[in-house]
Amino acid sequence: MERSESEGVGRRKFLKEAAAGAAGAGVAGGAGAAGAAGHPMAHHDHDHDHEHQVVPDDIALRVRALESILVEKEMIDPAELDAVVDTYENRIGPRNGAQVVARAWSDPEYKARLLEDGTAAITELGFGGAQGEHMVVVENTATVHNLVVCTLCSCYPWPTLGLPPVWYKSSAYRSRAVIEPRAVLDEFGVAIDDDVEVRVWDSTAEVRYLVLPERPPNTEGLSETELADIVTRDSMIGVARVSAPQPAAGADDGGGGA
Questions:
Q1: pLDDT in tens for each of the 258 residues of the chain?
Q2: Catalytic positions, please?
Q3: Which pTM value belongs to this model?
Q4: What share of the chain is helix, strand, coil (3-state, %, to 5)?
Q5: Domain-by-domain residue ranges, the chain?
Q6: Assigned architecture for domain 31-46+93-237
Q7: 49: Cβ–Cβ under 8 A, 6 or more apart, which residues?
């Protein structure tokens, strides 16, 4: 399940993928509402300001046609549109969330504030705004693993994670993450021991979640910047773990030599 050429091609590819995700979101996963047996799921009171309706199969073509008309009438600038896409896809993106995680790993007091009031603590670092007005941070531990989903569409914390990946918006992930979270995690390469509780958190238009991953061992000497470099988007959704950085190839292993 899962992640240029000319400016126009890059933009249209983005719009096509976003539209495809919207089409998948139009089919509400009824099985998701029930939750996973034995795994608590946050209440999903989905009072969105948009309706969950079936999107036409040709939505991608309609988006591209609308874009072409608006460009032809000089109502939008393709370069400015690409800049917006780049902002959320590359610059805002998961780098912000990685800084939040790295600060929490490095500063116990900040971590306490983050878990108590995610919105306020994230705002301390200058990250906030639309799609991130109410943030809740949940911590992975040796006994609890958290997984984030949006069962009815694709609610996602844009200020800290950027644009949602295509698989996050897929109907398969939205339903199976709730019904069989351990199987989904296994497919992502995350094996969860039987004695570890899996908690599934259902994002809404009002509340969005960020997973605070476990800090990997042997990272005590890393700076906050170096820690941020190893935090991945998927680990902040809960479908991956963070691994310690690997030594550079050919690095001195301390063995000495002639």
A1: 433 444 444 444 544 454 454 444 443 333 333 344 344 555 445 555 444 444 445 666 777 788 888 888 888 888 887 777 777 666 667 999 999 999 999 999 999 999 999 999 999 999 988 888 999 999 999 999 999 999 998 899 989 998 898 899 999 999 999 999 999 999 999 999 999 999 999 999 899 999 999 999 999 999 999 999 999 999 999 999 999 998 766 555 544 443
A2: 150, 153-155
A3: 0.67
A4: 45, 10, 45
A5: 31-46+93-237
A6: Alpha-Beta Complex (3.90)
A7: 205
